């Protein structure tokens, strides 16, 4: 038996870290080298005019896939339990491409109000311009989403937990109501990654990941993946081809490389973030900690029911004050960088802007600061946060 085929069999039943070490490419497809080649390609040659006319060969043009993009797409299919995965140049594109694939003029889309802000911007500008009606729903809506469904609702876009405030959502209840109304359900699963939540297992049609975050893991690349079930795959793939929005080979390779260590990195992110979240809870100067794995979180029961773990991103609500207080906190930090994005090896902090919310109200006690807990030592991070709290007046 071909060793590659044998090792693929082991993968199916193995633990997450074993699968992460072996999914995607088969080394024996390329002389036994453990990593796939980084194929830089536009043109692919055909052996004769007949094959060219029929396009009956595995690769036909760079935008339509290469051994490098196939390796990552196959790995994602395995992790997500998907029929197919497209790769796009950013996490934001991983949201916009499926929306464009399934929405037309005259359609209605339901989007969770705690959605990543650039997703909202895309909906409020591009989708509205294209004649799509957009409604934002409360992340706590659950089965009540049935009341918001219209005859023209074609997509429900969820994100769990929500950006900045980390509300959980009852995904199975939302899926049931959305499917009853004939809508496709999409979920931005960047926070959990498929290691901690597999959306397609819960009836979601399309799982979105900003691979820029944990899969990449090193704050040096932008990439998005969109994984679809059997029912939605063909339409998603057709839109991807029509838009020509393919990902660059070096970035694809870096994400495949990042996947190999994502499991062990996530274990550390999870452990450190939870330790710091617990330590911050009840501390002077902190009104609330918004982390779904904390028993105090309103969405904790849903998190416990549906998720297998928690990643390294959560928020704190400072006790009183305004943006000035948040700035004092941030300016005192020496290890936490002030920057966007998350999922990399280094800790980051940002003052969360919540003035875009329509129905999911922002915490009222004080400003919200989002913390990305990196791979540094927990004691050093705690000391840094102490500095921030002291500067904020506590
Ligand atoms: C939940 C979520 N989705 C999507 C994105 C977009 O990812 P990218 O930065 O790769 O465009 C982000 C980025 O912060 C995010 O937080």
Automatic annotation (TrEMBL):
<dbReference type="InterPro" id="IPR015421">
    <property type="entry name" value="PyrdxlP-dep_Trfase_major"/>
</dbReference>
<dbReference type="InterPro" id="IPR006233">
    <property type="entry name" value="Cys_b_lyase_bac"/>
</dbReference>
<feature type="modified residue" description="N6-(pyridoxal phosphate)lysine">
    <location>
        <position position="213"/>
    </location>
</feature>
<dbReference type="GO" id="GO:0030170">
    <property type="term" value="F:pyridoxal phosphate binding"/>
</dbReference>
<dbReference type="GO" id="GO:0019450">
    <property type="term" value="P:L-cysteine catabolic process to pyruvate"/>
</dbReference>
<dbReference type="GO" id="GO:0019346">
    <property type="term" value="P:transsulfuration"/>
</dbReference>
<keyword id="KW-0663">Pyridoxal phosphate</keyword>
<protein>
    <submittedName>
        <fullName>Cystathionine beta-lyase</fullName>
        <ecNumber>4.4.1.8</ecNumber>
    </submittedName>
</protein>
<dbReference type="InterPro" id="IPR015422">
    <property type="entry name" value="PyrdxlP-dep_Trfase_small"/>
</dbReference>
<dbReference type="Pfam" id="PF01053">
    <property type="entry name" value="Cys_Met_Meta_PP"/>
</dbReference>
<dbReference type="GO" id="GO:0047804">
    <property type="term" value="F:cysteine-S-conjugate beta-lyase activity"/>
</dbReference>
<dbReference type="InterPro" id="IPR000277">
    <property type="entry name" value="Cys/Met-Metab_PyrdxlP-dep_enz"/>
</dbReference>
<comment type="similarity">
    <text>Belongs to the trans-sulfuration enzymes family.</text>
</comment>
<dbReference type="InterPro" id="IPR015424">
    <property type="entry name" value="PyrdxlP-dep_Trfase"/>
</dbReference>
<keyword id="KW-0456">Lyase</keyword>
């Amino acid at each position: 038996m071909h060793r590659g085929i044998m090792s693929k069999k082991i993968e199916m039943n193995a633990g997450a870290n074993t699968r992460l070490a072996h999914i995607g490419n088969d080394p024996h497809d390329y002389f036994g080298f453990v990593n796939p080649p980084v194929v830089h390609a536009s043109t692919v040659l055909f052996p004769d005019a007949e094959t060219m006319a029929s396009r009956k060969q595995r690769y036909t043009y760079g935008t339509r896939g290469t051994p490098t993009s196939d390796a990552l797409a196959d790995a994602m299919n395995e992790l997500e339990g998907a029929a197919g995965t497209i790769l796009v140049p950013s996490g934001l594109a991983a949201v916009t491409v499926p929306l464009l694939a399934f929405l037309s003029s005259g359609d209605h889309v339901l989007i969770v109000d705690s959605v990543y802000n650039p997703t909202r911007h895309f909906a409020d500008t591009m989708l509205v311009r294209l004649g799509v009606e957009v409604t934002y729903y409360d992340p706590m809506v659950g089965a009540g989403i049935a009341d918001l469904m219209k005859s023209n609702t074609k997509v429900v876009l969820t994100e769990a937990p929500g950006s900045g405030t980390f509300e959980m959502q009852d995904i199975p209840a939302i899926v049931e109501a959305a499917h009853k109304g004939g809508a496709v359900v999409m979920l931005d699963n960047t926070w959990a990654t498929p290691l901690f939540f597999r959306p397609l297992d819960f009836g979601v049609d399309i799982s979105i990941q900003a691979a820029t975050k944990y899969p990449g893991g090193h704050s040096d690349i932008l990439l998005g993946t969109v994984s679809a079930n059997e029912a939605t795959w063909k339409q998603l793939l057709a839109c991807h081809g029509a838009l020509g929005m393919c990902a660059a080979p070096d970035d694809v390779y870096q994400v495949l490389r990042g996947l190999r260590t994502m499991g062990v990195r996530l274990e550390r992110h999870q452990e450190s973030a939870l330790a710091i979240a617990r330590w911050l809870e009840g501390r002077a100067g902190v009104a609330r900690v918004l982390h779904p794995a904390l028993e105090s979180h309103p969405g904790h029961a849903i998190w416990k029911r549906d998720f297998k773990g928690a990643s390294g991103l959560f928020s704190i609500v400072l006790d009183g004050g305004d943006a000035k207080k948040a700035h004092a906190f941030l300016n005192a930090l020496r290890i936490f960088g002030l920057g966007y994005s998350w999922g990399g090896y280094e800790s980051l902090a940002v003052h969360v802007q919540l003035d875009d919310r329509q129905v999911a109200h922002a915490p009222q006690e004080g400003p919200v600061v989002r913390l990305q807990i990196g791979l540094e030592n927990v004691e050093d991070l705690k000391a840094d946060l102490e500095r921030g709290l002291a500067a904020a007046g506590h």
